[in-house]
Amino acid sequence: MQLIGFIINPLSGDGRGANIWKEIETHLQMNQIPYVSKITQKAGEAKELAISIIQEHSVKKLILIGGDGTIHEAASGLAHLQKEGIHCSLAVIPAGTGNDFAKAYSIPKQPLQALNTAIAEKKKVQIDLLRGLNELIAVNSIGAGFDGMVAKLTNESSYKKYLNRLGLGKLSYFLTILRVFATYQPCTVWLEVDGTVHELPHTWLAAVANIPFYGGAIQICPSASPHDGMADIVIIQSRGRFRLLPVLFTVYQGKHTNHPAVSFYKGTSISLRTQKPLLIQADGEYAGATPLQITLEPASITVIC
Ligand SMILES: Nc1ncnc2c1ncn2[C@@H]1O[C@H](COP(=O)(O)OP(=O)(O)OP(=O)(O)O)[C@@H](O)[C@H]1O
């Protein structure tokens, strides 16, 4: 059997990552499955660990134990190597709070089932990537405005840790959405999609999606597909706060799409200028502030699902 590389974020899901790794490592040893592993020691490390584990051990399959933040970082490492002609498939054992990536690729929630899926390699897909400036890569989505603020405040909140311990991690995103909803001030954004500029006043949210979900299975962009060579863009505009309440309560099921405040675009080259700097999230991680420029890179990494 080929050597498998593992990267583990022990703190993902407030410690679930460490517990899952114990279970997985025992299983690997009992079944004499050859592996090498690296455990993240600090935030932002998974990219370098992915690069080093693949280069040092020539692994062709990398399994991540973590949440969307860990996948975000490691995918950036894979994309970097891909450009140098080094290919490695990516698999995931979900251990995070939101696990949107795992949901998008129907990866089992149960750790040993997810491991067996990764080992069996019955289905592999080439997925598109969203590439921003300064080596910013996203596999799920990049968003500015309301969702940038939600991602930052959720990751900084004490209730995320607490709710994770109760197995209610996804609720932490919803609580932050309510917090931000009460105070958010929309502004004008200029969205350019493949050369056409759209002036969009009173914009609350501008998100570029590669998969339908974010923020713990919110179906922000139900039509987004990581295999179509196109990025889907969702814009939410509203002069009044309370006009958006129906969107807030239907977006989890993806039933907000016909609401007049919501519009969609598709393209491969996207830029966003904003009346004031807006916070950016990339795969749920804080990624600076606008302006923003994104290019879709088709079929860039291989995911086992
Ligand atoms: N050893 C570590 N110490 C501190 N932070 C870490 C460590 N390892 C990884 N991180 C950081 O933890 C953050 C969250 O990781 P991850 O997204 O995997 O878990 P999560 O937040 O529980 O899940 P989700 O993104 O699905 O909500 C990432 O920004 C990552 O850089």
TrEMBL record:
<dbReference type="Pfam" id="PF19279">
    <property type="entry name" value="YegS_C"/>
</dbReference>
<feature type="domain" description="DAGKc">
    <location>
        <begin position="1"/>
        <end position="136"/>
    </location>
</feature>
<dbReference type="InterPro" id="IPR005218">
    <property type="entry name" value="Diacylglycerol/lipid_kinase"/>
</dbReference>
<keyword id="KW-1208">Phospholipid metabolism</keyword>
<dbReference type="InterPro" id="IPR001206">
    <property type="entry name" value="Diacylglycerol_kinase_cat_dom"/>
</dbReference>
<dbReference type="GO" id="GO:0008654">
    <property type="term" value="P:phospholipid biosynthetic process"/>
</dbReference>
<keyword id="KW-0460">Magnesium</keyword>
<dbReference type="InterPro" id="IPR017438">
    <property type="entry name" value="ATP-NAD_kinase_N"/>
</dbReference>
<keyword id="KW-0067">ATP-binding</keyword>
<dbReference type="GO" id="GO:0046872">
    <property type="term" value="F:metal ion binding"/>
</dbReference>
<keyword id="KW-0443">Lipid metabolism</keyword>
<comment type="similarity">
    <text>Belongs to the diacylglycerol/lipid kinase family.</text>
</comment>
<dbReference type="InterPro" id="IPR016064">
    <property type="entry name" value="NAD/diacylglycerol_kinase_sf"/>
</dbReference>
<dbReference type="GO" id="GO:0016301">
    <property type="term" value="F:kinase activity"/>
</dbReference>
<dbReference type="GO" id="GO:0005524">
    <property type="term" value="F:ATP binding"/>
</dbReference>
<keyword id="KW-0594">Phospholipid biosynthesis</keyword>
<dbReference type="GO" id="GO:0005886">
    <property type="term" value="C:plasma membrane"/>
</dbReference>
<protein>
    <submittedName>
        <fullName>YegS/Rv2252/BmrU family lipid kinase</fullName>
    </submittedName>
</protein>
<dbReference type="InterPro" id="IPR045540">
    <property type="entry name" value="YegS/DAGK_C"/>
</dbReference>
<keyword id="KW-0444">Lipid biosynthesis</keyword>
<dbReference type="InterPro" id="IPR050187">
    <property type="entry name" value="Lipid_Phosphate_FormReg"/>
</dbReference>
<dbReference type="Pfam" id="PF00781">
    <property type="entry name" value="DAGK_cat"/>
</dbReference>
<keyword id="KW-0418">Kinase</keyword>
<keyword id="KW-0808">Transferase</keyword>
<keyword id="KW-0547">Nucleotide-binding</keyword>
<keyword id="KW-0479">Metal-binding</keyword>
